[in-house]
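Can you make up a protein sequence with its backbone structure tokens?

===
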Amino acid sequence: MNAPHKLSEFAAAHESGFDVVDAEAICEAVRRPTMRFVQFKSAEQQGQLMQHRVRDLLMRQRTQLINALRAHMAELGIVAAQGREGIKELLTIVASEEDVRLPVNAHASLVVLAAGIQAVQTMIGSIEKRIIVQHRSNETSKRLETIPGIGVIGATAIAATVVDPKAFRSGRDLAAWIGLVPREDSTGGKQKLGPISKQGDQYLRRILVVGAHAVLRRARQQPQKYPWLTQLLARKPFKVVAVALANKMALTAWALLAKGGTYRAPALVAAA
């Protein structure tokens, strides 16, 4: 690096809040042989992740609309069960113009909420169809889907996010990057591990934990097929086991990305 160019970098860094010493340290660090760099995502990968982000936003908006609909109708004494069937029941009541329990002004407001829910649901369905089409044409995504707890959404998100799996030295590095490892609070030679660090990609972490919850529910119904999880559930709280399983899913995902192949169930599980 020539001197004028170096001085110009120092000046730019100083204007952005760094002093000359900071800028010089950055220039020195970036030339170290052990420095690791983040891989750039292609425009196609960014577009795929954008679909996930937009879908996630729409799902939060749908939840807000549903909660508002439930709350307003509960004020009028109309309550339905949790889940999809309950929402269908409420939407049917709103769609009816003959229900005397709904005052005219209340009905006009609830119609707006119902239309918003249906419109958002249509947009979510459209995005999910595109994600499924991309998944079916992506070998990496299809291999990731073979991991228990990782579905189409999780597989496509991981495939688009982890550009170069070999940038991570091991699966544990990937799990740490996602934030699924204990936080280090060690001091004075004493190792003290806290809750998970929650660093890195919040979206991937949530998808893996939700997938782990689904596997654990199956493990409770069919304990003979999941001996490891059954034993762990007997000793640890459900959510702690879910995070441990999500960590294992991240390790397995890295192994498939870095080494190829598909998921193979352990012999003990397969025999059971």
Summary: The first strand starts at residue 182 and ends at 184. The chain has a mean pLDDT of 87. The first helix runs from residue 3 to 15.
